[in-house]
Write a structure and sequence with these properties.
By secondary structure, the chain is of the alpha+beta class. Helices cover about 40% and strands about 20% of the residues.
Amino acid sequence: MQKLSALLITGLLSAISVGAVAEPDATANKNAETVILKELMTLDSNIPVESIAPSPISGLYEVVLKGGFVLYSSASGKHLIKGEMLEIRDNQLVNLTEEVKSNANAELLAALDKEDMIVFSPEGETKGVVYAFTDVDCGYCRKLHQEVGQMNKLGIELRYLAFPRGGEQSPAFRKMTDAWCTADRKQAMTDLKSGRSISIEVQGDKAACEQIINNQYMLGMQMGVTGTPAMVLENGQVIPGYRPADAIAQMLNIK
C-alpha cells in the first residue's frame, strides 16, 4: 500500500509538471510574476497577494496570499492549482505548501504583543513556547489547562490567544473579554476554565479588551483555526486539538 501511495504521488507531481511545460511561450516569459498578478487582479482587484515566486516545479509559480494561503499558477496566470505540493526529501515526504503556511503563521505570531496574551511561564528556564487559541467553554480547552502546571515544569511557556468559537455574539466572547479586563488575567482564565465565575474584579477599558479578543479571533481565522484548542508552535506549525504536556514537549524537542 505504501508503494502504491508513493507511485500515485509521483504520478501526480509528474502530471503537474507536464501540464506546466505545456505552455512554453508563457513559461519563457521573464515577466511571469507580473502577468500572473495582472490575471489575478482581473478576478478581484483587492486580492491580497503577498508574493509570487517560482516553485520547485519548472513552469509553475507559487502564489502566497495573506495568511499563508497558497495557490500554484502557470506562467500565463491562466491556470491555477489549489492543493498541496509534496517533495521527497531524505526519503521522506515533505509538504512544501504547509511549510509556506507555517512561515506565514510564524511571521504573524512574531508581530503580536505579548502583553495582549495570557501567559503561563515556567519558574525556571523557558525551553520552548507554544501558543494556544482557546475558548473558555470548550471541554478540551479546559483539559489542556489542567496540563499547564506540567508544561511549566517541563520548561514550556504557554501563551493563550482568544478564540471564542461562536464569535462576538457568544457567551464565551463576553467571558473572555472580562478575563482580559482583570488585573490578574491568569487567575481569571483559571476560574473560567474551572467552570467558575471570575473571582476578581473586572476593570479596565472594556472596549479595548473586546478589541483584543476580536483581533485574536480574526488572527485564528486567518491562520486556518477552525476549532479549539488549536496550538501553534513558534515555527508557525498548527497543531489542532488537545495534546498532553509530554506530547507537546516532544513536538518542541524538549527532553
